[in-house]
Amino acid sequence: MISFSKRTNYLSDSPTLQLNDRIASLKDQGRDIINLTVGEPNFYEPEQASEAAIEAINTHFTHYTNSSGILPLRQNICEKLLIENGLEYAPGQITVSTGGKQALYNTLAVLVNEGDEIILPTPAWPSYEAQIRLVGGVPHFIQLDETTKFKLTPKLLEAAISKKSKILMLNSPSNPTGATYSKGELEELAPIIEKHELIVISDEIYERLVYEMEFVSIATLSEYLKENTIVINGFSKAFGMTGWRVGYSAAPKVIAKQIAAFQSQITASVSSVSQKAAEQAILNFDSSHVDRLKFCQDSLITDIRQTELDLRIIPDGSFYLFPNIKPVLSKTYFGKIINSDLDFCSLLLDKVGLAITPGSFFNAPNNVRISYAKSLEEIQEAGKRLRSFFSGAEA
Ligand code: PMP
To answer: What CATH class has 6-44+287-390?
Structure first.
């Protein structure tokens, strides 16, 4: 019997993978499934990015690069952070990583000691908890719900802090709730973070996908926060570049140096070709994607409001809706009693071919996550299927 390391022992078959397998097997059986579980946009990298990648291959820009990333890409990232976010960094403070996911893992790995507490507002992207545990940290969950629009408040934050608290995980706009903090809301949290000398990991990967509000990075709020925040971002969501695997961290100098040293031993650099693509992508963001996402959001909201799902919070960012399913629990649909979010998602998939994600994957069993980063036609069809489920008719 092989015994696994304590740190990885708890990793089990991810429920997301199980759901994906089920969707794939239904598709294999010829079922027409609309899959709104995915965390990636339906658009692709800017043309300039793919051209740069092709050129990189044709000119043999295919060897190792500086393990923290090629300088022109890091320079472009610095320029973006300065112009768009008001954050000044030197290229030496940027580490280009294999997706935001690795940027996050690097950061946790260099900061967290066994037993350190990381304050984790939840519902949250499941990889936060997994990565915290992988580095020996302890997640301290703050359970959020609709009453605070899924946002942390000063009172909730203060109550969660203990002597062991080291880091606050912030994700705005959020996966899965779409909650996006305004400047005022962040300003209310800032004094508590400073008083307790917390480090902030600010995952800003959905930052460009905001609607009718301005994104503000918490690192801009004070000198303390600039010196104690690690900004995580990447190319997956805003540029439709999930498979290119490029993300980055922007960190205070001493932390950046340690992150760079860590990454150099783990993966060295991101693919040279992907870096060339990212260098161009960052100069060519297509804001029409945001308008299209907003159309999809509006369309789905209209449909959801004609069902028994309770959608009280309209998110300001990301591409997810997170309706509450309490009105559906204990009720019977298609002869089956819905006892949980899992039951609901499963029946929805079976009866009308619509795949959405159970909220319990994100520590929120009263909700479901619906990704609307699809074509408007698919979203309209999804809305129709959702309504047909509730009217009891089979699609
Ligand atoms: N943060 C959040 C909140 C995410 O949802 C994701 C992707 N699902 C990531 C980080 C990581 O994205 P990537 O590694 O593709 O950059």
So the answer is: alpha beta
